[in-house]
Structures are given as structure tokens and as C-alpha cells.
Design a protein that fits this description.
- The protein is mainly beta and 126 residues long.
- It has a single domain, classed as Immunoglobulin-like.
- It has 2 helices and 8 strands, in the order ααββββββββ.
- The protein has a 4-stranded mixed β-sheet with strand order 1-6-5-4, with no helix packed on it. Strands 2-3-8-7 form a 4-stranded antiparallel β-sheet, with no helix packed on it.
- The longest helix has 10 residues.
- It starts with a helix and ends in a 14-residue tail after the last strand.
- The model has no long low-confidence stretch (mean pLDDT 84).
Amino acid sequence: MSKAKNQAQEEEGWFEEYEGQLAVDAYQTNDEVVVKAPIAGVKPQDLEISITDEVLTVRGKRSQEVAVEQADYFCQECYWGAFSRTYVLPVPVDADRAQANLKDGILTIVIPKQEKSKTRVLKITS
């Protein structure tokens, strides 16, 4: 982003309101839905994960440890600040049994699929 464009966005207040989007990989196994996201530099306490039977939402914040003046940057490609991602799950899941793990900057969320309902044949009594 050019310095002039960045300044214009800050003057309009847009830049401060911007929330980054988290990139994810999502795949399935026979029994689970697995979602992975690279979130290097984010502490577990700075993450919030919510899951329903249909939607996964990950919110967090990546903070810089050292304050650097904007004018001192040669290049600024890393995103610092709040981010989120909402992903509509393509299959029914059991949100109560979901687990999350953060290791080596990769967030891995494993959500068991709901067991398929079995058809039950009822006998009619009189």
C-alpha cells in the first residue's frame, strides 16, 4: 500500500476500522471436519473460536511487540490487528465435541461429524 493511500485511509478513519481476514484450509476425513489456519504470532488467549452445527467463527488479534513509526518502514506486508473468519461448514457436525490446538503457528480445529441418523421402523400395536 502506498504511503499516500495509507495516509488517506487513516484520515478517513477506514484504516482503523479494518479487520483482516484469516486464511483457512478445510477438509474432511471419514469422521471429522478439519480446519487449519496459519496464525503465527497470536497467543491462545488472543483467540476466540465459536462453533454451531453449521458455522465456525475464528476471531483474534495479532499485536506487534515493538512499536515502529510508519515512516520507518521500507515494506509492511504483515497484518497486525484484529482478524476474523466465518466458515460455513459443509456437513453437520457435533460442535460439543470440537477441539482446537495451536502448535508452531498453525491453529488446527477438529470437529467430529454428526452421526448419520438411522431410520427406525416402528411396529404398530393396537
